[in-house]
């Protein structure tokens, strides 16, 4: 990897991490974003426990995609590093991963309830409910806990890269949301959407306590496909 490419990735990952508190997605240091350079076989991630107010480009850690070893950096990488690495290795389309403990998405994760599709705002990003994983077993918690946290997501999605592209996020049971995207920036934006639709779903169920129903499939498909896929027409180059 050239120095220019690594610097560009560092700049993007730093900017994405700094947006976590700006978007109201984290308390204290509860969140991290990474970005991968697959050609070089490395990813860049936030260091563990460093305040966003103090985070600099030099603090970011470069990690090997192959074995999780630190390639460059003076600080320890995020404790969630192995979860990020697991997702990168399982899903080739992923270029960035975000993990937060945003309030409303965590509420769904703790209740072990998928975030339902109740409107077109959800369907613009997620082609289906944001799913919840199974609980980790005692064995999975005792050894390689962080990697196994990623593995329960991979297992739930059956290692299907297409499913990962269509629903770019999951709730780890009793833990919180992980989102991903083609870039670090995209993964952070999907985390923002995940929290927003979780909040909207809770408000909707408050207004309709007997249970709100999903919109018709044709409406949801229209909103997803106008932003994603070969016939997408939302936005400008």
Number of helices: 9
Spatial strand arrangement across the major sheet: 4-3-2-1-5-7-6
Strand content: 5-15%
Through-space gap between termini: 27 Å
Structure description:
The chain has a single domain (3-225), classed as L-fuculose-1-phosphate Aldolase, CATH 3.40.225. The model has no long low-confidence stretch (mean pLDDT 95). The radius of gyration is 17 Å and the shape is globular. It has a seven-stranded antiparallel β-sheet, with helices on both faces. The protein is built from nine helices and seven strands; from the N terminus they run αββββαβαααααββαα. Helix content is 42%, strand content 14%. It has 237 residues and is an alpha+beta fold. Helix 1 (3-22) packs parallel to helix 8. It has helices at 3-22, 81-90, 103-111, 120-123, 138-142, 145-156, 161-166, 184-207, 217-225, and strands spanning 31-37, 42-45, 61-64, 70-72, 96-100, 169-172, 176-181.
What labels describe this entry?
237 residues, alpha+beta, 9 helices, 42% helix, 14% strand
Brief digest:
The protein contains nine helices and seven strands.
Write the layout of secondary structure elements.
Layout: H1 3-22, E1 31-37, E2 42-45, E3 61-64, E4 70-72, H2 81-90, E5 96-100, H3 103-111, H4 120-123, H5 138-142, H6 145-156, H7 161-166, E6 169-172, E7 176-181, H8 184-207, H9 217-225
Antiparallel strand pairs: 1-2, 1-5, 2-3, 3-4, 5-7, 6-7
């Amino acid at each position: 990897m050239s120095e220019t490419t690594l610097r560009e990735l560092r700049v993007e990952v730093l900017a994405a991490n700094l947006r976590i508190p700006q978007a109201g997605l984290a308390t204290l240091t509860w969140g991290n974003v990474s970005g991968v350079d697959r050609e070089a076989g490395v990813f860049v991630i936030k260091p563990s426990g460093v305040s966003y107010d103090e985070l600099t480009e030099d603090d970011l850690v470069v990690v090997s995609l192959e074995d999780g070893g630190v390639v460059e950096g003076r600080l320890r990488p995020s404790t969630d590093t192995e979860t990020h690495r697991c997702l990168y290795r399982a899903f080739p389309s992923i270029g960035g991963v975000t993990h937060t403990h945003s309030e409303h998405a965590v509420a769904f994760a703790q209740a072990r309830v998928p975030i339902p599709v109740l409107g077109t705002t959800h369907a613009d990003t997620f082609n289906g409910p944001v799913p919840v994983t199974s609980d980790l077993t005692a064995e999975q918690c005792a050894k390689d806990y962080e990697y196994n946290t990623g593995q329960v997501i991979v297992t739930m999605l059956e290692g299907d890269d297409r499913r990962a592209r269509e629903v770019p996020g999951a709730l780890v049971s009793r833990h919180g949301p992980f989102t991903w995207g083609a870039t670090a920036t995209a993964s952070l934006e999907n985390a923002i959407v995940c929290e927003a639709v979780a909040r909207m779903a809770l408000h909707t169920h408050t207004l309709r306590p007997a249970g709100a129903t999903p919109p018709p499939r044709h409406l949801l498909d229209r909103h997803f496909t106008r932003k994603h896929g070969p016939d997408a027409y939302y936005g400008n180059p």
